[in-house]
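#random but structural
TW: two for the price of one
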Amino acid sequence: MVETRHRPRVEGGREEEILDATVALVAELGYDRLTMDAVATAAKASKATLYRRWQTKADLVVDAVTRAKRCPMPEDVDTGSLRGDLISMSCGDGGFKEELPMSVMAGLLTALHRDADLQKAVQERFLAPRFALVNEVYARAVRRGEIAPGVDVELLATTLPAVIIHHAFILGVEPTDELILRVIDNVILPAARGSQAS
């Protein structure tokens, strides 16, 4: 049986300050250029404090992007419609318009392709809770009859973030309410109704 090693917490509000500093540096520098020295300097903490709590840079970064207050989760608000839920989730707190979480994802993208441990940790601790929230939005839409039989709901659920991320990171187009609504109204809802071109 593998023994779980419990890492000591940093006292008081210092841990939150360190996590927030880490998130800001990932957004500014990217994962590859981030160092424990830089985090220690930005958070006015010692490297020893960081290493007592986080064994590696990956440990610290994953903890920061999943727990820092500056990277909030979108709220699960049941508005009564798929369109309303998607707008609430995408345009509200923690949505695609939040500059910092989007910048953090940009800062992690290159490293995710090379670092299997980082990729696994980000998928399990950062992306999985968000995927679960999105999946529940679409499950409610199925129960309400808003999604036609035979529609690939799993693929549909990934379409909005895929289009927004493509615009943001490939085309350099900032996510706006207008862009999000265009994708929802012209892509997601017609596909949900099964009215896409055959």
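TW: number two ↓
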Amino acid sequence: MLRRLYQWVINLAERPSAPWALAAVSFAESSFFPVPPDVMLVPMCLARPKLAWFYAGLCTLASVIGGLLGYAIGSLLYDSLGLFLIQLYGYGSKMEAFTAAYQHYGHWIILIKGLTPIPYKVVTITSGFAHYNLFWFVVLSIITRGLRFFLVAGLLYWIGPPARTFIEERLGLVTAIFALVLVGGFIAAIYLF
């Protein structure tokens, strides 16, 4: 079943509509959706390595725009939608400490957490809730999200076919590692906040 799912994603990645789906997932992940865009970015870069840089740029742009929605949720709708989303991901009791940390380490929080598997939506919503400077939020989001997505795309572009072969031969292992990193990111976020 895993192999069929992988092949389906690879086939989807080769379709003309794939960039739109990638942009939608990148946008949604930055504000409310739990699945990171890497699940589409990786197979798309493997399927069409010459477009890896375009895909990374698209991910970055859509993620930053989605981050603005997350910021707006935190700033304007925290008492309703923002609090619901934060509690849904298990961070409700940690918001005061996180907001206080923004006063001293706001730049570093955005830069570091944007690179990690910690859900970026927590950073975007909290940035809005803490009324972090919007200009710096956008600039730092572009840097951190761009770095993350261009790093993934660059590795896949330069390694190319051997990466695809490695993933296809060890699909179960790669999937398990990805799942562990994703779950580890959620757990780390709970304990770091």
